[in-house]
Amino acid sequence: MTAPSVDLTRMRELLAIMNRLRSADGCPWDRLQTFASIASYTIEEAYEVADAIERGDVADLKDELGDLLFQVVFHAQIAREAGAFDFEAVAAAICDKLVRRHPHVFAAAAGRSGPLSVVEQSVAWEESKARERGADSGGALRGVPQTLPALMRAHKLSKRAARVGFDFEHASQTADKVAEELAEVREAAAAGAAAACPSQEIFEEIGDLLFAAANLARKLEVDAEAALRAANTKFERRFRAMEALAEERGQRFASLNLAAQERLWLEVKRAE
Q: What is the reported pTM?
């Protein structure tokens, strides 16, 4: 396989800049950082990449990918100083993993006369990941990061459980589970209606409802995190449109009663 011709001059320059920033006469702030202290920045940069993609802003995407790459280089520099690994080792690890998880691309698959389908490729990828985790090293849920966004983690947890047979057969059964959890929320809310603040039972039942909804999204092959982001964007767009419509009519949206606000909502919704 012939590798594409790539000029790595600027990559080497980036590594040199990072080394300079962490040197004794470099940047005091950069020298103080640890894996833990910059972890939140790494997550933030990943979200900014996703945001640029959603907005279709390719120029911004280039900049945000640069920011994310810098985070990778930053972590690798800290690791190199600790004698753990360096950027070259990071690149080597992902190269080896990609080749290992794509035997149908980088090595002839025994007994196959053609390439894998998308479904077959996905199955092979998951099987490869499972082998790497080890069948008896922590169970089916091992390795699902605690720091993932909650909806994304719910998706991964239910997907791992489904892989070993713990799953509803049909999406309709999963939808029934959502309805069951909603009924339990209603019961808990009714029981705690007189309380000054939500009870622990309500808290837990809401969590169960959200988990069931995330599981239904997985069963229907919908990315729950992306779906909720889209719903947030739609709500924001419609709400701003309601406020603008009220202002055009000489009204202050916050002063309108709920019935009048809902009429504006329906008007905006029909206009879309």
A: 0.67
